[in-house]
Amino acid sequence: MRFFYLPRTTLRGLLVLAIIIFAVSWYLEHSSRPTNELWPATAIDSQVIATTRQASRPAFKDTLHPFRFNPNEADSLTLRKLGLPVYVVRHIVHYREKGGRFRRPADLQKIYGMLPEHYETLKPFIILPQEHAPQPAKAFSRPRQTDSSLTVVTPQRTVSDKFTQHVLLDINQVDSVTLIRIPGIGPYYCHRLLRRRELLGGYVCITQLDEIKNFPEAAKDWFYVADGTKPRQMSINHLPFKELLRHPYLNFEQVKAIFNLRNSVGKLQYLEQLSNLPEFTSEDIERLRPYISF
To answer: What letter would DSSP give residue 156?
Structure first.
């Protein structure tokens, strides 16, 4: 009973001490629990499951069993033996049923679902035999009867036959069949010559062939420009921007300068008016002279 007769300050100190002891005990009890109890069980489970799945999932290259195959002929069973997923096999078969063909190994990447890892693993094993197009039937001329009443069939001359004797050809009239017969000119230079003739509006001198990159020097001796040749001319005061820009002798900045000059002075009267523009040199103006009208 003497406890209750202690001084008030002493009793207050004992009460505070008891509260501190209780607080420390509670803290020690709860802080000693396992850390996973502080987290929701669902979060822990999902992390564990995701980690387990990732660890157990084999690398894709380990699921393939590549061997040499032709993707144009392999059936679905063969494709499955390679280790390809079912949906990839289905897309390959569907692609072929629609008329698709694999002409080079890289075409296999077009298949939906074919990942880069698929292709890189299978690429060394792809076999694509060269598909030979059927040879065109030879053209023959109409049979003619000889004095001995025997039928003689003479093959027609093809466009690949080259001239055996030198001839001069009007460069603004010659066609592709004749061009291809000139020694040194194949389909590439034939196309370039005709294409540039169309864009220019016609050639005015043979040296313009030098503007075609690597054009055969010896081939220029087969051409001439007929006297009185007049190329197609451009109306510099009336043609729209895009039409002027199509000409090989005009670039974007030059056409823009022409339009600015037209807007400031009105219709142009002579070609020398362009000499005051920094975009044009004297050589540019001389090249344009045959092709400009006012």
So the answer is: P
First to last CA, the chain: 130
pLDDT value at residue 193: 95
Same domain, 241 and 217: no
The helix (run of H) or strand (run of E) holding residue 261 is helix 252-265
Please indicate, yes or no, whether residues 204 and 240 belong to a single structural domain of this protein. Answer: no
Instruction: Indicate whether 216 and 241 sit together in one domain.
Output: no
Residue 146 falls within a domain, yes or no?
no
Write out the two tokens for 175: 């066609």
278 Cβ contact partners less than 8 Å away, ≥ 6 residues apart: 257
Query: Can you give the pTM of this predicted structure?
Result: 0.46
Does residue 120 have a pLDDT over 80? yes
Please give the mean pLDDT across all residues of the chain. 79
Non-local CB neighbours of 83 within 8 Å, separated by 6+ positions: 63, 64, 65, 66
Rounded CA-CA distance 1/5 in Å is 7
Claim to verify: residue 183 and residue 240 sit in the same structural domain = no
Q: Is residue 64 part of a domain?
A: yes
Q: How many domains does the chain have?
A: 4
List, for residues 89-106, the tens digit of each pLDDT value: 888 888 888 888 888 888
Owning domain of residue 211: 169-224
pLDDT per residue over 40-77, tens digit each?
444 444 454 444 444 444 444 457 777 888 888 888 88
